[in-house]
Amino acid sequence: MAKPLVSVIIPVYNGEKYLAEAIESVLAQTYRPIEILVIDDGSTDGSAVVAKSFPEPVHYFYQCTSDVSTTRNTGVKKAMGSFYAFLDADDLWLYDKLALQMKALESNSDLHIVFGYVSHFFSPDLDEITKQKISCPTENMPGYHPGTMLVSRDSFLRVGLFDPNLNCGEFLDWYSKAKENGLKSLLLPEVVMKRRIHNANRGVRDREIQTGYVRAIKAALDRRRKKLDN
């Protein structure tokens, strides 16, 4: 039997420096078939040139600058696969990420979402002074993160798209909704993603990112209270 297609959605905004490595880490996956959708959120650098330099299964799409939620949602709307996966343009996958996760899903029909662990690394272009100013965890961490997730299309659409009103904390909000909808998830013990630490990370660039997470948590609590009241 033919294996199901996995759609890998890579949002990018001025990410030409790291985009090729991200795409290559997906192309190195042992699992097939895959399609890679690079959604360019209005980049003004060479991101388009990088993405277009790759042949199929890489597909490039451009949109006017919006936000990361809308960019991922654009990818979902264009995806043809039975499963969805996401990767930020500055991060990397381990070569067996999709194979491990598909195996877990195939062995448990009650499972909807599979995550894995994340390791962190300093981007080689950082100088030593900058490294001293930025935190880079040395231990592997549970990766409840869009970049580690593999989810079936039906399960994802059951929850709905990412909230475009939450440019920060959008995944926390989505995953809270997934649990509220009864979706079951599994965290694999293996590292499946390497998160690049550099001076343009969203968390490094904008300390107010925490406000987005607070809003996402509040929204989840409000939904829970409303459900109890009903």
Structural features, described:
By secondary structure, this protein is α/β, with parallel strands linked by helices. It has one domain (6-229): Alpha-Beta Complex (Spore Coat Polysaccharide Biosynthesis Protein SpsA, Chain A). The chain is 39% helix and 24% strand. It has 9 helices and 9 strands. The protein has helices at 16-27, 47-52, 68-78, 97-107, 128-133, 153-159, 170-180, 202-205, 209-229; strands at residues 6-12, 34-41, 58-63, 83-86, 92-93, 113-122, 141-143, 150-152, 185-197. Strands 1, 2, 3, 4, 5, 6, 7, 8 and 9 form a 9-stranded mixed sheet that branches. Helix 1 (16-27) links the parallel strand 1 and strand 2 (34-41). Helix 7 (170-180) runs parallel beside helix 9 (209-229). The longest helix has 21 residues, at 209-229. Residues 204-208 have low confidence and may be disordered.
Fold topology:
Blueprint: E1 6-12, H1 16-27, E2 34-41, H2 47-52, E3 58-63, H3 68-78, E4 83-86, E5 92-93, H4 97-107, E6 113-122, H5 128-133, E7 141-143, E8 150-152, H6 153-159, H7 170-180, E9 185-197, H8 202-205, H9 209-229
Parallel strand pairs: 1-2, 1-4, 2-3, 6-9
Antiparallel strand pairs: 4-8, 5-9, 6-7, 6-8
Helix pairs in contact: 7-9
